[in-house]
């Protein structure tokens, strides 16, 4: 039923020779010849700004964050190496109250 109404509603547009589907602009305003559409110009300016901002953050990531991460990793490795060089484990004395086995398990 819906297709019958949709077809009958648009049949007048297709059969009328004076109307063309491409020349009907609805509620849009026409831009005078020789002028730039302000909405398109604004959109292009936004895209250009976004392109420059993306390039800036890409450069910051590569030239600032990358070396910073490498320097931090090197510093952490250096500190860990110094600690491992002088670190030794002391043996715990055999206290009599440790590791008591009074219950018979798994006989």
What's the Cα radius of gyration?
39 Å
Estimated share of beta-strand residues: under 5%
Written as H for each helix and E for each strand, in order along the chain, the element string is HH
Uncertain spans, ≥5 residues at pLDDT below 50?
none
* Intertermini distance: 83 Å
Classify the secondary structure makeup into a structural class.
Answer: mainly alpha
Shape summary: elongated
Would you give an account of this structure?
The protein has 107 residues and is mostly helical. The chain is 59% helix and 0% strand. The protein contains two helices and no strands. The chain has helices at residues 2-15, 38-86. The radius of gyration is 39 Å and the shape is elongated. It starts with a helix and ends in a 21-residue tail after the last helix. The relative contact order is 0.03. The mean pLDDT is 80.
């Amino acid at each position: 039923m819906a297709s019958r109404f949709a077809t009958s509603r648009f049949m007048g547009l297709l059969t009328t020779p004076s109307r063309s589907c491409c020349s009907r602009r609805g509620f849009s305003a026409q831009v005078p010849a020789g002028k730039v559409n302000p909405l398109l110009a604004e959109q292009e300016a936004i895209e250009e700004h976004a392109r420059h901002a993306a390039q800036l953050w890409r450069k910051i990531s590569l030239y600032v964050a990358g070396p910073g991460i490498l320097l931090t990793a090197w510093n952490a490795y250096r500190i860990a190496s110094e600690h491992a060089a002088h670190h030794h484990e002391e043996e715990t004395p055999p206290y009599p109250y440790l590791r008591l086995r009074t219950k018979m398990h798994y006989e």
